[in-house]
């Protein structure tokens, strides 16, 4: 066959054809690969530094008006003022207390209700539609109600965070339980394991990845709600600080506060990653 | 302990799956059940072990399970059913935890079954680190740990490649030689059936009915891979099944 092809008259081989050895032998062209983006560790910090440098350059050369956006050095100055005056610690303490109490209570209750929905018919029928109806309501819209119910003080702020983290945890938990491999449950029953043992040793561990994933979402929602709640009648708290800075048009302080929130979010997400790496080390 | 299945029929809603099954599983013997896929083999073994209730008929245990048996009817599953978050050792201790036995006894039972299945070096390894064949060995070790009266195996080798299957088949034969366990062994693989079964029950396509029961008198240890007698039996079984398999293949899953 090779002979007849290469010998065909009037069909000269073009220049860009693959290298042809004598006898028409060519290497098979590679067509695979790609479609597999990999994280390159140094790109993100480089990108961040470049952005800040560009921003500083723009500010110091007058391309960016200080009214629109303060220079990074000014933001840094505002931040170091915040640290040196000891106010950062005060704001953070207030915010973290609310966040931890609200999130811990919301997540715990959410897991409990999620487990009940995942395991029993009556709670499932009762709560699943209720959760579906309340989850999409922005909890910020309910804040005035919470203030009436729980007072303008800590109560309404913690309640907002609690509600915000409760619903995603419920949904993640029963979703995880619904997805448990039936065969593993059957295995447990076939060895006469008690109901409690099946829940503890089979159902909860297999729902754990979904629960941790739910915590990630619930934590982000909690931080968003924290700031919203602190914007109403809070003396201390990162949210209150940001609000005050905004009212005074102190954009350098505003950005310092927002950056603190961003760092807080990153730390929370990192902590959850640590928990995942520890608790889910059995995962393939 | 013998198991006796009498006049067993089963259906899911309107789907008739099993019809009038009668099988006796005598103590110390391996009864293989073969049949085309979808004919109700898995349903049958779930019924035998009490994981589902039969629509009609009964399943009886005759005689007492051996002394110290923690779970007389014990399964070995096709997909191994190991908990990925527990080590080999933890997977075995799982099925011992609810029983009134001391910590020392649990530890010694685990060591014992790991030794019998030649898994002692892998006690602290997670399932994800093991090959399919090793996972199934762990499942076998777990089943042995509760001292079963009857092993109920649903296509235990079907998820494995053919080389691993040969190795595990040899393991099961030598295990039987040593322990003379009683088993109901479901498979669609006729070669496994003639290598491991003292008796082979052939089911028809769905609804599964018993078409034939074939006793194989050659001792398990003497059944060589290339034995002509086994090959004859296997061919005979295939002739019985061929027609059924052909029709079963064209059967709708939900009809
Ligand atoms: N829990 C169930 N509900 C409804 N139908 C089922 C159920 N389990 C099995 N079936 C049906 O019963 C038939 C026999 O299934 P199965 O026992 O798994 O067959 P086999 O193991 O021989 O391949 C199949 O048609 C299957 O779809
Ligand atoms: Mg099956």
From TrEMBL, chain A:
Residue spans crossing the bilayer: 40-58, 99-122, 129-152, 158-177, 217-242, 254-275
Record keywords, A-Z: Cell membrane, Membrane, Transmembrane, Transmembrane helix, Transport
GO biological process entries: alkanesulfonate transmembrane transport
SUPFAM superfamilies referenced in this protein's UniProt entry, alphabetically: MetI-like
Superkingdom of this protein's organism: Bacteria
Any Pfam family: BPD_transp_1
Name recorded for this polypeptide: ABC transporter permease subunit
Stated role: Probably part of an ABC transporter complex. Probably responsible for the translocation of the substrate across the membrane.
One annotated Gene Ontology cellular component of this protein: plasma membrane
InterPro entries according to UniProt: MetI-like, MetI-like_sf
Residue stretches making up the ABC transmembrane type-1 domain: 92-276
Family listed: Belongs to the binding-protein-dependent transport system permease family.
Gene3D superfamilies: MetI-like
Subcellular location: Cell membrane
PANTHER family reported for this sequence: ALIPHATIC SULFONATES TRANSPORT PERMEASE PROTEIN SSUC-RELATED, ALKANE SULFONATE ABC TRANSPORTER-RELATED, MEMBRANE SUBUNIT
Stretch list, region Disordered: 1-25
Bilayer topology term: Multi-pass membrane protein
From TrEMBL, chain B:
Keywords: ATP-binding, Nucleotide-binding, Transport
Database matches in PROSITE patterns: ABC_TRANSPORTER_1, ABC_TRANSPORTER_2
Family annotation (SMART domains): AAA
Domain ABC transporter: 3-230
Entries under InterPro entries matching the protein: AAA+_ATPase, ABC_transporter-like_ATP-bd, ABC_transporter-like_CS, ABC_transporter_ATP-bind, P-loop_NTPase
An MF annotation (GO) of this entry: ATP binding
Pfam families given in the database record: ABC_tran (PF00005)
Keyword ATP-binding on entry: yes
Similarity annotation: Belongs to the ABC transporter superfamily.
Name of this protein: ATP-binding cassette domain-containing protein
Native species: Nitratireductor arenosus
């Amino acid at each position: 066959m090779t002979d007849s092809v290469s010998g065909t008259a009037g069909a000269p081989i073009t220049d860009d054809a693959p290298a042809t050895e004598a006898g028409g032998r060519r290497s098979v062209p590679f067509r695979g690969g790609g479609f597999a983006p990999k994280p390159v560790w140094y790109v993100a910090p480089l990108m961040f530094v470049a952005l800040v440098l560009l921003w500083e350059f723009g500010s110091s050369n007058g391309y960016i008006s200080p009214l629109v956006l303060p220079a990074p050095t000014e933001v840094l100055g505002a931040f170091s003022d915040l640290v040196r005056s000891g106010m950062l610690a005060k704001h953070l303490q207030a915010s973290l207390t609310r966040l931890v109490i609200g999130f811990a209570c919301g997540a715990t209750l959410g897991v409990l209700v999620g487990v009940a929905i995942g395991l029993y018919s009556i709670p499932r029928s009762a709560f699943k539609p209720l959760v579906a109806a309340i989850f999409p309501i922005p909890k910020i819209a309910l804040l005035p109600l919470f203030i009436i119910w729980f007072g303008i003080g800590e109560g309404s702020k913690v309640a907002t965070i609690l509600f915000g983290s409760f619903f995603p945890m419920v949904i993640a938990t029963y979703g995880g339980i619904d997805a448990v491999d039936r065969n593993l449950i059957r295995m447990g029953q076939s060895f006469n394991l008690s109901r409690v043992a099946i829940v503890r040793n089979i159902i909860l561990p297999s729902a754990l990845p979904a629960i941790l994933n739910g915590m990630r979402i619930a934590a982000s929602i909690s931080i968003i709600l924290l700031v919203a709640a602190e914007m109403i009648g809070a003396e201390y708290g990162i949210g209150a600080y940001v609000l005050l800075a905004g009212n005074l048009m102190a954009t350098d302080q505003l950005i310092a506060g927002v950056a603190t929130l961003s760092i807080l979010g990153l730390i929370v997400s990192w902590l959850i990653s640590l928990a995942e790496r520890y608790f889910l080390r059995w995962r393939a | 302990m013998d198991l006796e299945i009498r006049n067993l029929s089963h259906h899911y809603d309107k789907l008739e799956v099993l019809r009038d099954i009668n099988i006796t599983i005598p103590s110390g013997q391996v009864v293989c059940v073969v049949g085309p896929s979808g004919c109700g083999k898995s349903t049958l073994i779930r019924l035998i072990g009490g994981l589902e209730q039969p629509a009609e008929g009964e399943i009886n245990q005759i005689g007492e399970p051996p002394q110290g048996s923690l779970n007389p009817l014990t399964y070995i599953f096709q997909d191994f059913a190991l908990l990925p978050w527990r080590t080999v050792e933890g997977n075995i201790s799982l099925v011992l935890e609810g029983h009134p036995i001391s910590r020392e006894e649990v530890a010694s039972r685990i060591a014992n079954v790991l030794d019998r299945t030649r898994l002692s070096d892998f006690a602290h390894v997670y399932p994800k680190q093991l090959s399919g064949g090793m996972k199934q060995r762990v499942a076998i070790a777990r089943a042995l740990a509760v001292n079963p009266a009857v092993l109920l195996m649903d296509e235990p080798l079907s998820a494995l490649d053919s080389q691993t299957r040969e190795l595990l088949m040899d393991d099961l034969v030598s295990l039987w030689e040593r322990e003379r366990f009683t088993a109901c062994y479901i498979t669609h693989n006729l070669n496994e059936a003639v290598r491991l079964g003292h008796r082979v029950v052939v089911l028809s396509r769905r609804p599964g009915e018993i078409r034939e029961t074939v006793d194989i008198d050659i001792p398990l240890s003497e059944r060589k891979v290339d034995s002509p007698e086994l090959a004859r039996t296997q061919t005979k079984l295939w002739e019985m099944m061929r027609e059924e398999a052909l029709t079963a293949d064209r059967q709708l899953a939900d009809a």
